[in-house]
């Protein structure tokens, strides 16, 4: 996924992974709670990919991320 800084790449990708069943609702709810505690409630989907503490605190992606999941029809790899 390619785009400008702060254009929502991680958020969009995390939301896509969630909607396709690549991550469960309980995990998203956990991310939402943790993000809200840092005043970044809207970052819950970005946290699917943003694992580093610095990424979560600053609200920016520092490291590249790779996520694999499958739907009933496809195997998906997100880079």
UniProtKB/TrEMBL annotation:
InterPro entries: G_TR_CS, P-loop_NTPase, T_Tr_GTP-bd_dom, TRAFAC_GTPase_members
The keyword GTP-binding is assigned to this record: yes
Pfam families, per the entry: GTP_EFTU
KW Nucleotide-binding (keyword) present: yes
Organism taxonomic ancestry: Eukaryota, Fungi, Dikarya, Ascomycota, Pezizomycotina
Database matches in PROSITE patterns: G_TR_1 (PS00301), G_TR_2 (PS51722)
Name the UniProt record assigns to this protein: Translation elongation factor 1-alpha
UniProt GO MF annotations: GTP binding; GTPase activity; translation elongation factor activity
This protein's UniProt keywords: Elongation factor, GTP-binding, Nucleotide-binding, Protein biosynthesis
Gene, per the UniProt record: tef-1
Sequence ranges assigned to domain Tr-type G in this UniProt record: 1-79
């Amino acid at each position: 996924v390619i785009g400008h800084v702060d254009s929502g790449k991680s958020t969009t990708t995390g939301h896509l992974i969630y909607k396709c069943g690549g991550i469960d609702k309980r995990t998203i709810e956990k991310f939402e709670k943790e993000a809200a505690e840092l005043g970044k409630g809207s970052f819950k989907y970005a946290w699917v990919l943003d694992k580093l503490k610095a990424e979560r605190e600053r609200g920016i992606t520092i490291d590249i991320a790779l996520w694999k999941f499958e739907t009933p029809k496809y195997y998906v790899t997100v880079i």
